[in-house]
Design a protein that fits this description.
206 residues; 2 domains; alpha/beta; ten-stranded mixed β-sheet; L,D-transpeptidase catalytic domain-like
Length: 206
């Protein structure tokens, strides 16, 4: 077999494996790295803003979350945001936080995705849910967003799917890698102001 033919056959085999792998699990090709995109790695950036230090600003269009620092700086994290039809904007407050949170999918989500029911159990507090842990979609930490004293049902949370950072995939929640959400969790006290910037497709919370 010639060297050129061997290369061609190798490429064809790779393509076949990628197509077949795309049918399993999350639908991602088998040979594609499941780590986060390095373009969304946590870093410190210049970020002039009128918001006071400590404020969280989320820019869904660029898939970044900023924690405002002094001297026109911010800690920038990559995030996954709401899919089309689930984008929102406005102000909220971190009402409470939880490590390895349980997940209680809202009724609307259960209606949209009935296949979730097979992964749910009857929770101690009542209702169907999934106990916190590495397999839980909320990841290692969650921060719960309230507006006017009421639960918005939106969260800032981790994920066990780090390759989704930088995409529009959620039902409105803001997801970070587990490493990043643990870091953010430590920096974010209850009562922190959260600003979600508008996009052309977002709906303002009321």
């Amino acid at each position: 077999m010639s060297k050129r033919l061997a290369v061609i056959l190798g490429v064809l085999c790779t393509v076949v494996l990628m197509v077949l792998g795309g049918c399993a699990g999350s639908g991602l090709p088998l040979l594609v790295s499941r780590g986060p995109d390095p373009a969304f790695a946590r870093t410190i950036v210049a970020y002039p803003t009128r918001e006071p230090a400590g404020t969280i600003v989320i820019d869904p269009s660029s898939h970044f979350l900023y924690v405002v620092q002094r001297d026109s700086k911010a800690i920038r994290y990559g995030v996954g945001v709401g899919a089309e039809g689930f984008l929102w904007s406005g102000h909220a407050t971190i009402d409470h936080k939880q490590e390895w949170p349980d997940w209680y999918p809202p009724a609307e989500m259960m209606a949209r995705k009935p296949e979730l029911r097979q992964h749910m159990v009857e929770m101690r507090g009542g209702g169907l849910g999934m106990k916190g842990g590495p397999e839980n979609p909320l990841g290692a930490r969650a921060m719960y967003l309230y507006f006017g004293g009421k639960d918005t049902l939106y969260r800032i949370h981790g994920t066990n799917e780090p390759w989704t950072i930088g995409t529009n995939i959620s039902s409105g929640c803001i997801r970070l890698t587990n490493d990043d959400v643990v870091d953010l969790y430590k920096r974010t006290p209850v009562g922190t102001k959260v600003v979600v910037l508008p996009t052309t497709a977002s709906v303002a919370i009321r």
